[in-house]
Description:
The chain is of the alpha/beta class. Helices cover about 25% and strands about 15% of the residues. The protein is built from six helices and seven strands; from the N terminus they run ββαβαβαβαββαα. A seven-stranded parallel beta sheet has the order 1-2-3-4-5-6-7, with no helix packed on it. Helix 4 (about 140-150) links the parallel strand 5 and strand 6. The longest helix is centred in the last third of the chain and has 15 residues, at about 220-235.
Amino acid sequence: MCTLLTVAISGKVICPLNRNNYVFAPFVDVAVLTFRVDTVAYITAVLQHSEFPSLKEFEMHAEAFPWTVAEQLFRDQEPSLAGDSFNAVTHLLCFTQLQTLQLDFHCSIFLDNDLLLDAMSCWPHIRSLNLLDPRNTPIVTFCGLFTALRLCPHLHTLGISIDAVNIDIDPTVESFQHTTLQTLDLTESRVSDAKAVARIISSMLPCVDRISRLPYGGDLPRAWNTVNRHLKSFKSSLAPCRDITGTPPENT
């Protein structure tokens, strides 16, 4: 399987993998791994019985993914972390070449500032990251988010749940700007001061024109529509977005 670059398993599982019908070799060159299934049988078998040292894109969508099954799956994938509390992100840190990561299953991610920083340290090539968690009260703060963003200069798309109520950063005294991030989804987060949130985004993420809903768009919660109105106002008074080299965009 040394020439296989993409593995995609999707649809309704008719004959789940078991010890009698799988024989896996290491997927040395596989860069893309995608699961879209109604059960975790295939996911469990593939991740437990093979290796993906070159993995760059990982997507997992499972309808029936009980907490206990998820816990066992990721502990088997990274046995050295078996003593830790279960966290899907923790058990994906071994994929150090990741450029795209999207998780969609019925478990909370339990992301905090420290874990987000660890993840960005392990994924320096990350370009698209979706860690939205509608099932848990977010505890990642704006300060934690921007500290982590310093480690991922190529990131252009981000979906994450953060604490947008207890603001812990002052954009007027921060000089850092992340100039590659263009698409941002914070819509699973509560907002109390929409104008303050918009000011932070406008100041520190100059290429984010509006808050979006990943992955396919859709209506936003009312509070984030208000953020977008303020963001549009702030953006209209600023210079055009510059790219990572600091060069203004060409006129079209």
